[in-house]
Amino acid sequence: MSSYDVAIIGAGISGSAIARELSKYELNTVVIEAEDDVASGTTKANTAIVHAGYDAVPGSWKARMNLVGSRMYEMLCADLDVPYHRTGTLVVALERDQAPLLEELRERGEVNGVEGLELLDKGRLLEMEPNINPEALGALYASTGAYTCPWEMSIALMENAVENGTELLLGEKVLDIEEEGGHFGLVLKDRTIRSKYVVNAAGLSADKVASMVGDPGFRIAPRRGEYWLFDKNTEGLVTRPVFTAPTPLSKGVVITPTADGNIMAGPNAENIDDPSDVSTTQQGLDKVWNDAVKLVPSLPRRSAITNFAGLRAAASPQADFVIGPMQGHFGFFNTAGIESPGLTAAPAIAAALTGMLKDAGLALEKKRSWKPKRKGLVHFAGLSRQEQDRLVMEDHRYGHVICRCETVTEAEIIEALRRPVPCRTMDGLKRRTRLGAGRCQSGFCSPRALGIVARELGVTVDSISKNGDGSFYVTGLLDGAEGGGLDD
Ligand SMILES: Cc1cc2nc3c(=O)[nH]c(=O)nc-3n(C[C@H](O)[C@H](O)[C@H](O)COP(=O)(O)OP(=O)(O)OC[C@H]3O[C@@H](n4cnc5c(N)ncnc54)[C@H](O)[C@@H]3O)c2cc1C
User: Fold this and answer.
1) pLDDT class for 482, splitting at 50, 70, 90?
2) Ligand 1 centroid to residue 430 C-alpha, Å
3) How many domains does the chain have?
4) Do residue 302 and residue 385 come from a single domain?
5) Pocket of ligand 1 contains residue 337 by CB under 6 Å
6) Both 246 and 120 in a single domain?
7) Domain finish residue from 285, 310, 335
8) Fewest 10 Å CB contacts: which of 54, 156, 197, 360?
9) 228: domain range?
10) How far is CA 408 from CA 255, 360, 383, 402, in A?
11) How far apart are CA 97 and CA 485, in angstroms?
12) What's the CA gap between 267 and 287, in Å, rounded?
């Protein structure tokens, strides 16, 4: 039976950040992820903002981890070659009764220790963002706010952890947990693995995973948020994340640039029952649309290229992150209820949790060979003409453009398949290369890309899925056809 010092359940941003933090030490660490790729849960569908930290209730885990995490982000992104744009963020008052809310947020932010908060009058606001509704009254500017790419951050953290010796098991769901003589037995489909310490970073399932051990003392309820994503021809419509005033359930609807040069609008906030229901609804999208056009009246609906939804994992009764040891079950730790600002807070949560593991007796001996840096994939489309020419001369597959909307080349697809974290699904390929993420949403490129993936992985096209769980593109071959390449 495999035996580990620490087993982390879940490879979203929380599990990935914890894995990377623990990879600094001489430990035998394993990450177990139910899906076929990292960042397949909430981490793949959110607003991607590195929040400044003015929202959360002072003194809460959310407030403390947000502030520390936000201060860690820039350096972490530089080390891991992940996009980070420190543009500052704005909360806009569109109606008279919203103006006092801005003052409230500023005061709360200052109590939380956030620097660089400033109330702007309408003139300053419109100077900074000329496409905002001219009826706006003013805004709160948070100069330390930023945006990033959430799945790239999670992939980068995990790649770096794996390069530093962490073991990653994909497509392996923890079905049960047995406590046995100072160890835990994690029951997978066809084996059980042993670990002295367990970290539950299972997102929307964190309550189910914790209850495999005992009474978790919290419940996770999904809260859905829906989005509109706009074509790159909208680039520049806003130059930083711009929020409407917050509501009791959410930070408000935001219109934001993405790290890839699109514009995105969302989310609404709707409590739902099913933790797997990431469908979009007419009602939800209409709500986001109506709020978004009040903020930026020229938002062009014709430029929308897709919609999607993400689920916040809200913990009750705490209404806060649940971070720490589970009482009565020595060695079992939760990072649960990691709703927003969990993306921002993840590096701080990882550091705090590592401290708690140490307090519980985990020996943290620094790994002398630890590598802090990771190099990201080449993105051909973002290079200068000279750099592109140089790459094509070195490897002709950079001259073979597969995704026309996003200019993704065959060489990038091949590189994505050979990284330290295996990429086995077409959505995984999209998250790493942007293949199929553009205007046509993979209508043209997916058959050719499927052929390349099949050839490179030595599998048949009918075994390649969109995102695991039977989501195959090809469900059978015609009589006499062979299951090889579709790319020629
Ligand atoms: C609409 C929306 C907008 C948001 N916007 C922001 C924002 O702008 N900024 C910000 O800071 N935060 C934001 N957040 C919050 C942020 O996205 C989350 O806090 C973060 O992604 C949570 O990451 P996680 O790793 O805890 O969970 P997840 O990403 O959900 O990862 C949990 C993983 O555990 C796996 N798992 C579950 N059960 C098992 C099991 N039994 N065995 C093995 N694996 C298992 C799942 O497959 C999943 O991959 C937003 C969230 C939403 C929904």
Assistant:
1) low
2) 19
3) 2
4) no
5) no
6) yes
7) 310
8) 360
9) 84-147+222-310
10) 26, 47, 12, 6
11) 61
12) 9
Shared domain check, 128 and 243: yes
Q: What confidence category does residue 488 fall into, taking pLDDT thresholds of 50, 70 and 90?
A: very low
Q: Which residue has the tokens 């049960």?
A: 176
Express each pLDDT in 104-144 by its tens digit: 999 999 999 999 999 999 999 999 999 999 999 999 999 99
How far, in Å, is the centroid of ligand 1 from the Cα of 201? 9
Q: pLDDT tens across 191-222, in order?
A: 999 999 999 999 999 999 999 999 999 999 99
Task: State whether the beta carbon of 13 lies less than 6 angstroms from ligand 1.
Answer: yes
Shared domain for 254 and 392, answered yes or no, is no
Residue 109, domain member (yes or no): yes
Question: Which residues does the annotation mark as catalytic?
Answer: 51
DSSP readout, 352-374? HHHHHHHHTT---PBPTT-----
Q: Determine the pLDDT at residue 477.
A: 72
- pLDDT recorded at residue 440: 86
The interaxial angle of helices 410-417 and 426-433, nearest 10 deg, is: 110
- How many C-beta atoms lie closer than 10 Å to residue 25's C-beta? 21
Please give the helix or strand (H or E) that residue 310 lies within, else none: strand 304-316
Q: Please check whether residues 138 and 279 belong to one and the same domain.
A: yes
- 279 in the same domain as 133: yes
Do residues 433 and 425 lie in contact, with contact meaning Cβ atoms separated by under 8 Å?
Answer: no
Q: Are residues 230 and 143 in the same domain?
A: yes
CB of 246 sitting under 6 A from ligand 1? no
